[in-house]
Amino acid sequence: MITFPEGFLWGAATSHFQVEGNPSEISTRCSDWAEWTVADGRIADRTTADQACQFFNRYPDDLELLNQLNLNTFRISLNWPAICPDANGSGLLLSIDSGQIEHYRQLLRRLKGQGIKTFVTLFHFCLPKRLADRGGWLNPATPEEFGRLAEIVAREYKGLVDYWITLNEPLAYTYQGYICGAWPPGLKHSYDDAFQCIHNMLKGHALAYQAIHAEDPHARVSYTMHWRPFIARNKLSPTDQMVRHLRDAVFNHLFPKSVQSGKLQFPFPFSLKKAVEPLSGTIPGLKDAMDYLAINYYTRDVCEFSYEPPFDLFGVKTVKSEIEVNGMGWESYPEGLYNVLTEEIAPYRFDSKGFERPIIITENGYASVFPADMTDGNWSLDDQARISYLKSHLLAIHEAIKHGANVQGYLHWALLDNFEWSEGLRIRFGLVRVAYPTQVRTLRQSAHYYAQIARQNGLDAGDTGNGLAR
Ligand code: BGC
Fold this sequence. Notes:
Blueprint: E1 2-3, E2 9-13, H1 16-19, H2 23-28, H3 32-36, H4 55-68, E3 73-77, H5 80-83, E4 86-87, E5 94-95, H6 98-113, E6 117-123, H7 129-132, H8 141-156, E7 163-168, H9 170-179, H10 191-215, E8 221-227, E9 230-232, H11 238-261, E10 263-264, E11 281-282, E12 293-297, E13 301-304, E14 316-317, H12 334-344, E15 359-363, E16 368-369, H13 384-402, E17 407-413, E18 427-428, E19 432-435, E20 440-443, H14 445-456, E21 458-459
Parallel strand pairs: 2-3, 2-17, 3-6, 6-7, 7-8, 8-12, 9-13, 12-15, 15-17
Antiparallel strand pairs: 1-21, 4-5, 10-11, 13-14, 16-18, 19-20
Helix pairs in contact: 8-10, 9-10, 9-11, 12-13, 13-14
Bound molecules: beta-D-glucopyranose.
């Protein structure tokens, strides 16, 4: 049996749009995503998140699952579009929906009542539509309003939030929205916009970080990094290596490097672009604005240079995988997580005062594929592949801890099956299966396996989870 440090956080994660089916958001389509999903051809299986898991109303029962699984931590996100349905145009004076504020207060209170530590994300990919219509994160009003939102919710939920997350995966968001175009605003190869977006997200993060700290100096505030090891397909190819280097420098390092130094500096050759000149330099309040390192880790990307148009500054990744993949086509690569924790994040381990930042894995999980209209039966319950993914990644984390990584918690993505963005409902990441037409929840084998790990604060390296059938 290997054990984790005392007090280790064992949890699961969700995000509002993916689970809620928030009636006020859906009836008014007040978010970019609520609108995006109803346009033809954008979601692979033609589903929407209009109902998703109906978590908005079903959360009291769903939170019970946490105790059933012996979990001590839960991650949610707030529905910014529903909380702030209106503004005065300057982004500075917001009208707040007190019903929504109350909703999350009840939810957080319930978690506290159950003895659960809370992670709360402020931006998990969804913008108020009124801001999206005015350029979204490209408009300087957006970071201003985001800072204001942070101030308000930090005041409202003081004492109810253990860990704040300002932005979820700013680089994944930028990449999907401005480079590959699969998410709103749906732009492709818009590099100048992407860099503007990163700049404004850094500003928004700094404003939110400072606002939360002004309300509560002891708050723990960070943002999540989607960390992906990039590997050159042909290690001897200078062009594959160049693509590997650029993607790593931008996707993994640009944001944390900026927070570490307080300055946005684009790596060469992006630094030569005229458009990045006004975006570079010091951002007020940014330096050290990261109290812990929040890592979302799923897979690696194998990079190769492509000569095919349209020209992609970052090259392309290999489509054909050499190792086991999940329903998203993502490779299982636990050694990458070990490297991230022990080496790749080393530049961000300490803040400028020498404080060692704790590391929390805020997402990690495995996707399977089952159509959204499945109801009864045993489908997907015996999820050995998820169990072995979970186990291999926990072993990698444990090994990293043994070698000095200050990892203090692990949050599995996700508690429930949910709406997987452009892939729709058929991609299933849940420990708990959701039969969408009936909304029935059923624990998968992996949920039982994870519950045992959380209870023991450790795992038996020889256990395959096979003996856990219920
Ligand atoms: C996101 C989640 C998403 C998960 C699996 C992360 O990038 O934060 O919203 O569902 O990955 O793709």
